[in-house]
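A reminder from the course coordinator: this example appears on the midterm review sheet, so study it carefully.

Given structure:
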């Protein structure tokens, strides 16, 4: 059985498709609808994957512009080559999509550099893509192998060398009527790894039920038909024709985002959602969000930073005001004391001058020459010749 067709402008090469998908069924998965038309029962199938970007990186060509893929498949660009991608559980063969049986797992690849692997349009990703697909083509060369789907990449440096190891999630698809089992597929891959030990390190198979996100109803149930298996708790099948069970987003209570309560829906994790009051509000006994009291904020009004800041600011203002008043009082007292000291200094200076001149006291007017009162008889007082001794004559008019 030939593998999926991949080509350049004029060269045809056998290879497989490389959609990005989630291998952990318990984690939320993005569901992207693949082409709606296909052959047979594939028309209702859907691929759970992250679509490859439809635009090319600068400098790369766009071979998918010619729409080379047929049979309901979609064209996916790499760096300068393309391949046809069918829906989940189908493989591309000779311009048609055929239903197959999947065998998921993870293979570890040795690589010198991981630069550019995050870009599916880069040359590094294209080289890794063909390196892996050719490895599986060789490993299942004599079987009813159909195609390999390359999933997400996880890189890590090697502790013993400069090489890096890349864990690649893959899904090997065989004919729907194949006799292959998980054991036979794993043994074939392990034999191929022994012959390519420098490039590939190990392979770990994944349980098909875990890949689909289904429960095993009994020990013999291998979830061959993903459409019939029962989803695990917390997972739902968004469409009856989608094999994967995915984790839908948590549903918020109906009383959220109403004018009466002012509540908001808060998604705490992938499974739980709850109604809470927005920051700055707190729920009262009636279940209504009330604005926080003065000084409080945050979720459930638990942040008292504003109150602390207000108290500290008030205390600081009082202290500053008291300090200013104290400075004014001290300055006024010092000024009064300086005036008194100046008077004492002046008096002391005058007394020193009197002692130096032989006088013991100051005059009445503060001069250094005191006035002396002499009690002399009136007759002995000197007469002023200019003083009129008689009375002033009266006016005769």
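Designed residues:
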């Amino acid at each position: 059985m030939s593998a999926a067709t991949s080509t350049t402008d004029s060269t045809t090469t056998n290879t497989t498709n490389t959609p990005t998908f989630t291998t952990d069924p318990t984690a939320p998965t993005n569901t992207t609808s693949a082409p709606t038309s296909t052959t047979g029962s594939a028309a209702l199938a859907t691929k759970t994957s992250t679509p490859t970007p439809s635009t090319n990186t600068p400098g790369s060509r766009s071979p998918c512009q010619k729409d080379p893929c047929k049979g309901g498949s979609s064209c996916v660009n790499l760096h300068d080559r393309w391949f046809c991608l069918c829906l989940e559980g189908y493989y591309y063969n000779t311009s048609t999509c055929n239903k197959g049986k999947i065998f998921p797992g993870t293979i570890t690849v040795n690589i010198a550099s991981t630069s550019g692997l995050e870009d599916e349009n880069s040359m590094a990703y294209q080289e890794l893509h063909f390196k892996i697909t050719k490895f599986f083509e060789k490993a299942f060369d004599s079987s009813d192998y159909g195609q390999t789907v390359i999933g997400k990449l996880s890189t890590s440096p090697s502790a013993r060398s400069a090489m890096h190891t890349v864990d690649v999630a893959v899904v090997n698809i065989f004919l729907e009527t194949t006799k292959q089992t998980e054991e036979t597929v794993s043994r074939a891959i392990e034999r191929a790894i022994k012959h390519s030990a420098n490039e590939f390190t190990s392979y770990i198979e994944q349980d098909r039920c875990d890949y689909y996100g289904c429960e095993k109803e009994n020990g013999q149930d291998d979830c061959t038909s993903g459409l019939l298996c029962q989803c695990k708790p917390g997972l739902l099948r968004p469409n009856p024709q989608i094999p994967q069970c995915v984790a839908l987003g948590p549903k918020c209570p109906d009383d959220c985002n109403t004018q009466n309560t002012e509540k908001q829906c808060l998604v705490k994790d992938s499974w739980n959602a709850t109604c809470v009051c927005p920051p700055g509000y707190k729920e009262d006994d009636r279940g209504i969000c009330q604005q926080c009291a003065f000084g409080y904020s945050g979720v459930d009004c638990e942040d008292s930073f504003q109150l602390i800041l207000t108290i500290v600011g008030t205390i600081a203002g009082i202290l500053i005001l008291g300090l200013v008043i104290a400075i004014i009082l001290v300055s006024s007292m010092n000024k009064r004391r300086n005036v008194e000291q100046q008077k004492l200094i002046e008096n002391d200076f005058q007394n020193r001058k009197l002692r130096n001149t032989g006088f013991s006291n100051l005059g009445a007017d503060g001069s250094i020459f005191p006035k002396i009162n002499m009690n002399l008889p009136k007759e002995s007082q000197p007469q002023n010749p200019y003083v009129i001794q008689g009375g002033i004559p009266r006016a005769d008019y």
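The helical segments are 123-139, 182-194, 208-212, 305-357. Residues 312-357 form one domain.
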